[in-house]
Amino acid sequence: LVSRKRRAEDTVIELGNVRIGGGQPVVVAGPCSVETRAQMDTVAKGLQQQGIVLLRGGAYKPRTSPYDFQGLGVRGLEILRETADKYGMVAISEIVTPADIELALDYVDVIQIGARNMQNFELLKAAGSVNKPILLKRGLSATIEELLFAAEYIMSRGNEQIILCERGIRTYEKATRNTLDISAVPILKQESHLPVMVDISHSTGRKDILLPVAKAALAVGADGIMVEVHPEPSVALSDAKQQIDLQQFADLMKGLLESGFLP
Ligand code: PEP
Ligand code: MN
């Protein structure tokens, strides 16, 4: 179902007045985790000034260590919703449990399935049973084929609104957090009719190479990029090292607009 052979035209996901796929690239931005109302308000306000409509923020955080901040849960979803409504933005957040998919419908406009859950088949089935766009991230060690099969799980249950996201894969290279598989983008676009995004934050784990990496993603045909932005990255409760502040985000946007990579 996700194959180009079954459908030649690009799938376009409509979210308010934003369209993901089939033309103009989009930018998803926001903090790694929803932490406080004030944090979300500051970041959303700054992003809105940059013309950003797609707001991300994690409420359920799949952390490597059980002692690390696990996210605010439903309270985080509430804060994200309130903030998105205040600024007329679209709310995107990760859900990690099949049982929470229904709950998420009241709070988010796009349900994210994270890298660690790309092959949580019960979660994929639950995501396939709702009428809400799904942003499906590639697993840490998943092949392109496995990512497409994961999307197939969702679509075979009836939900056709899927956005694929390349977020880097595990390799021996240590200069970046993961290795951005840039060729996955044109391959996914060729094999599938679904929109494809690139997460430049989790793939690189750095903030100093985001502009060239974003340009590369858009140059190979990505329908959008995702980037983590925090009002004060040094005190962020998760992914402090890779999140950029609002000024750095403004510079990134300027670089992409001036070079014609964003309209
Ligand atoms: C995220 O985007 O919040 C996240 C945890 O990313 P990933 O699932 O790609 O690691
Ligand atoms: Mn993160």
Automatic annotation (TrEMBL):
Domain of life, per the record?
Answer: Bacteria
Which terms does the UniProt entry file under GO BP? aromatic amino acid family biosynthetic process
Organism, as annotated:
Collibacillus ludicampi
- UniProt KW tRNA processing keyword: no
Sorted alphabetically, the keyword list is:
Transferase
Q: What is this protein called?
A: Bifunctional 3-deoxy-7-phosphoheptulonate synthase/chorismate mutase
Upper lineage is: Bacteria, Bacillati, Bacillota, Bacilli, Bacillales
Looking at the record, the residues that make up the DAHP synthetase I/KDSA domain are 12-252
Q: Does the keyword Transferase apply?
A: yes
**Range covered out of full length:** 41 to 303 of 311
For molecular function, the Gene Ontology terms on record are: aldehyde-lyase activity; transferase activity
